[in-house]
Amino acid sequence: MIENLVDIWLTDATERSYEAAFAQLLVVEGHRVIQGPMHHGHEHGKDVITLSPADELCAYQLKGGSGKLNTDSVEDVQQQLFAAASTAVGHPRLPTSRRPDRVFLVTNQPATGPAQGRIKQLSGGNVSAGLPPLQLIEKDELKSRFVRSQDRFFPSDPRALKSFLNLFLADGRGPLPLAEFYAFLADVLPLSGKKPGAAETQRAISAAAVATAFALRQWTDAENHADVAIGWMAFTSQLLRTADRTGVAKMRWETSYRLALETVRARLDLLLDDASAQEDLVVPDPAEPVVYSSRAIKVCGLLAASLLSDVIETGGAPEKAAAVRKILIRELPYLKAVGEVQAPSLFLVALALARVGEFRRANGMLQGWVSSLATVNQPRSENAVADPYHDVQEILLKLIGPNGLHDLDEEEMAGRAYTLHIGVRWLARRLWRQHLASIWKRISRVELCEFRPKYPLEYYYYRSPNGTLHTWHHSQPTSWSKLLESSRARSTDELPSLLVEQPEFLPFFVLVLPHRFNSIVADLLDDVSS
Amino acid sequence: MERQFRRYVQREIVRDSPVLGEVSRIRQHEGTGWHMGDLDNPEGSGTYERSEARLELTRDQMKSGELSDVLERFRGMAKSFAEQQSRSMFIKVQEATEKSGNVIDAGASELTPELFLRALEMFQQEFDPETGEPSGGMFVVHPDVAEKLIPKIQEWDKDPEFRRRAEAIKQKQFLAWRDRESRRHLAD
């Protein structure tokens, strides 16, 4: 069955469908990945670069498609193969820049005899010219390598298998079912039970990455870049959880982490390209007037997170900042939240706007959030927005469905909020006293809520079995100086250490675990992004 | 189906004990602890008490019972939950009032107009900011007590002096409310 699944997965796959899985497969096989899948002018024919277990520098050119690889297809990539063989690889992990020792053409297609012959000829020409030999990895070999590694990444438990198959067969045009995805990740990573040793942890992480790539196939094929990115963000959060839990050395998980993060970023770059190429984010559908604002918030939140992550890690690229800025400003009038689950996205957009110099708009967003939430979530309000434990789909279904039949009907949202105090803290730090004073009466009536997991590790949990829900009101009157002092106070002791040490992941973390966007996480995000 | 039955039980709990319907509820989606701040008690925390109720159906009932039988059993569960929750709530209220000193002990004597007015005076009344009329709040008494108390209050209300004092208390509560509202601001 596994062979069939791999066969189905590879058949008609595009390069983008399998590139993340292939890179992670190389990690499973013991390679050290120097560069993950890349698609830009500087790649010089090398999509993936690794150091093999035998310390050979290997360059991989990936191709995808349907049908067979024939001589025409080989000719199409000949220039790239030559570039891959003849140009040096320069990377901090290499003592000197040098040409690869081996070059591979990787394809999900079966190759015709003449195509294989052509590759052999090209390889012979390379060798005689002092260039590295060329090898072909085509469908059968690719399949057998995945199948050989399957005992490491393929879920064997029936329940886990069911969870995997549900994802594998889902409709990739829709949103990724996050609760189900986290359950799947819990099946493929050692998140509970006996802690494995360092080597086993490393293998488990790499294998889980391959499983993730498989599970996201439908979304990848549908070119649903947003939800593919979300899937990899969720995986990365659980990778850090595994590493934090087991305490393994960074070298054991860093490669898989970096590959996953780069996959997130690559997907979000594609999302940015798509969003930039259109005049809006409309998907023609009768339901569009209901869902457009939520899609706009989702896309803008993702793009903002991508920008901020780059800025946190490398300072960011001006061209990308300009492109993101354009989209955020274009969509700003449509960013109307339906629930507190969208608060992290809106706060990220505000941070991103500030980052690109749009301070007035950034402050306007924060003020708008605080003011609106304080109004609609007043006691006895009939328009209160749902807490962050309810996703957008659930909220929209309640909005359009008959009353009294929905889970949300069982809960009271009026009179309380989970993200109001976060907005108040952010505005206080920015010294917006007058604005806060003008709406303080409303703020003072709303009960403030915040969940604090009991242990740092539980910040990664989709649902924590321990922990305390804190509820309180602002004191009356509230001292501005005390409010300011408290909003400036910081402590990251409660947070998992790796989350603090990998701040570039924080913008993504709050998107895939929005109910973890409490004051501690939000303050850290504000600090690292500013 | 399970979800619908759960909703039915929740509705029946409130029908059985209307006072529970007046209490604001929050669903805690994870964790086991709670921590609250309020005016009288800056810190209150704890974990949740478990409450249970049984529902039993014989095999024959499962095979040939009616929906009304099932609903009757769920109503039984709801009644049990309502009793447990009400009891727990009143214990908490008693603890909070004893701690704050907001208690009048009438001993074994009957309720008099004087005692009633004293109780009224201790009550923190809210008012509608638009109309200035009292809003929210309720007296919770045992049905047997209510049967005796309501006619008494109606009788007392005929006394001009009682009405004058009740009105004075209402005025005092209104001023206290206005004072509380005026404190909803950002001070230095």
Structural account:
The complex is a heterodimer of chains A (530) and B (188). Chain A has 24 helices and nine strands. In chain A, the strands form two sheets. A five-stranded mixed beta sheet of chain A has the order 1-2-3-4-5, with helices on both faces. The mean pLDDT of chain A is 91. Chain A is 56% helix and 8% strand. In chain A, helix 3 runs parallel beside helix 4, helix 12 crosses helix 13 and helix 18 packs parallel to helix 24. Chain A has 530 residues and is an alpha/beta fold. Chain A is elongated and about 85 Å long. Chain B starts with a helix and ends with a strand. Chain B is built from seven helices and five strands. In chain B, helix 1 packs across helix 4 and helix 5 runs parallel beside helix 7. Chain B is mainly alpha-helical. The radius of gyration of chain B is 22 Å and the shape is extended. At the A-B interface, helix 19, helix 20, strand 8, strand 9 and helix 21 of A face helix 1, strand 1 and strand 5 of B. Strand 9 of chain A pairs parallel with strand 5 of chain B, so a sheet runs across the interface.
